């Protein structure tokens, strides 16, 4: 019969061996899991980067489009200013158009500078994100999105103000040009224009006052001392409809 201490020692040795084998098996399993999971984690990391990169490119595209929009508003405002000054609408330019034009210039300049600056920030942020640090790119994209929302609203508001001035100018100048056209259609004026020898040198609109702007239809005689009796029959005003109202313009014969 085997003594009990020897049996106990044998059982302890067997238990230790079993534990060691179990631990080795666990370690092997854990290593295999880590090895098999590595591609999954890498794919997840790569997927996040690609999504961030896509979002960054889309955000910059929106900012670039907004920059172009603001530039178009500024250019259109500058063109309108030049046209209005050429049509003698100096007072309307100074009091109504210029405040909006100043804003259009400032907005376009800010968007130009911001786009160039943020393009560099996004590039640096994406470089850091490749290394696993997304703090910089996330902050940049959030900042750009807020900026875009603000400046899109500003640009639209400026464009609306410019369009209001354009409409007021077009309506006022359009009425004056309509008055000139109506005057030239009068039978007596047609007769004078066709007269031989020539009686009428030209008929045009002239601004007799700039503040407020007052248009006058001016008929200039070919000969200043002409005394053709028909010249005395020329009406001294010409009226046109502006919606439901009538506007009269003075007529001067020189």
What report would you give on this structure?
- This protein folds into two domains: 48-173; 177-253.
- It is built from four helices and four strands, in the order ααααββββ.
- It has helices at 4-86, 90-130, 135-185, 187-194; strands at 200-210, 213-221, 237-242, 245-253.
- Strands 1-2-4-3 form a four-stranded mixed sheet, covered by helices on one side.
- A hairpin with a 2-residue loop joins strand 1 (200-210) and strand 2.
- The model has no long low-confidence stretch (mean pLDDT 89).
Estimated radius of gyration: 41 Å
Mean pLDDT: 89
Distance between the termini: 150 Å
The overall strand count is: 4
Count, helices: 4
The spatial strand order of the largest sheet comes to 1-2-4-3
**Overall tally of domains:** 2
Largest sheet: 4 strands, mixed
Note the run of SSEs as H and E: HHHHEEEE
Low-pLDDT regions: none
Q: Please report which band the strand proportion falls in: under 5%, 5-15%, 15-25%, 25-35%, 35-45% or over 45%.
A: 5-15%
Q: Specify the overall morphology.
A: rod-shaped
Helix content: over 70%
Category by helix and strand content: alpha+beta
Which descriptors apply to this entry?
254 residues; alpha+beta; 2 domains; 4-stranded mixed β-sheet; 4 helices; 4 strands; 72% helix; rod-shaped
Task: Reconstruct the topology from this structure.
Blueprint: H1 4-86, H2 90-130, H3 135-185, H4 187-194, E1 200-210, E2 213-221, E3 237-242, E4 245-253
Parallel strand pairs: 2-4
Antiparallel strand pairs: 1-2, 3-4
Helix pairs in contact: 1-2, 1-3, 2-3
């Amino acid at each position: 019969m085997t003594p009990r201490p020897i049996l106990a020692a044998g059982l302890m040795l067997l238990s230790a061996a079993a534990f060691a084998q179990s631990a080795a098996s666990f370690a092997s399993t854990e290593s295999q899991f880590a090895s098999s999971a590595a591609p999954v984690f890498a794919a997840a990391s790569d997927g996040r980067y690609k999504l961030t990169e896509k979002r960054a490119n889309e955000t910059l595209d929106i900012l670039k489009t907004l920059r172009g929009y603001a530039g178009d508003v500024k250019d259109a405002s500058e063109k309108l200013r030049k046209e209005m000054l050429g049509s003698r609408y100096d007072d309307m330019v100074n009091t109504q158009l210029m405040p909006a034009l100043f804003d259009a210039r400032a907005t376009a300049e800010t968007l130009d500078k911001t786009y160039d600056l943020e393009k560099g920030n996004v590039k640096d942020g994406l470089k850091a994100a490749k290394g696993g640090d997304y703090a910089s790119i996330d902050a940049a994209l959030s900042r750009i999105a807020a900026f875009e929302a603000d400046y899109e609203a500003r640009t639209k508001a400026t464009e609306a103000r410019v369009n209001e001035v354009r409409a007021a100018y077009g309506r006022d100048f359009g009425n004056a040009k309509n008055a000139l056209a109506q005057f030239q259609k009068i039978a007596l004026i047609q007769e004078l224009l066709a007269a031989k020898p020539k009686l009428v040198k030209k008929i045009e609109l002239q601004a007799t006052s700039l503040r407020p702007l007052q248009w006058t239809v001016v008929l200039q005689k070919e000969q200043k001392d002409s005394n053709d009796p028909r010249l005395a029959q020329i009406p001294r005003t010409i009226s046109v409809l502006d919606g439901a109202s009538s506007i009269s313009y003075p007529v001067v014969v020189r």
